[in-house]
Write a structure and sequence with these properties.
By secondary structure, the chain is of the alpha+beta class. The chain is built from three helices and three strands, in the order βααββα. It has a three-stranded antiparallel sheet with strand order 1-3-2.
């Protein structure tokens, strides 16, 4: 991740339009990049968008 501003889980959900619960599950499973600080997860929006685009290109569904 670069020096870009990191987003909380709820801010990421607002920016992407994706459900908080789904983002949390994907981050906990290691399918979305995040930085963990205790129970808090912080996200680099560019890294998350890149990971989602790569999943879409590979044919992995959002529900996986």
């Amino acid at each position: 991740m670069n020096d870009a501003k990191l987003l909380t889980l709820h801010c990421l959900a607002e920016r992407t339009g994706l459900p908080v619960a789904w983002l949390k599950r994907e981050a906990d499973a290691g399918r979305l990049p995040c930085i963990r600080a205790g129970r808090m997860r912080m996200f680099d929006l560019a890294a998350v968008l890149k990971a989602l685009a790569e999943r879409q290109e590979s044919g992995v569904s959002r529900d996986s």
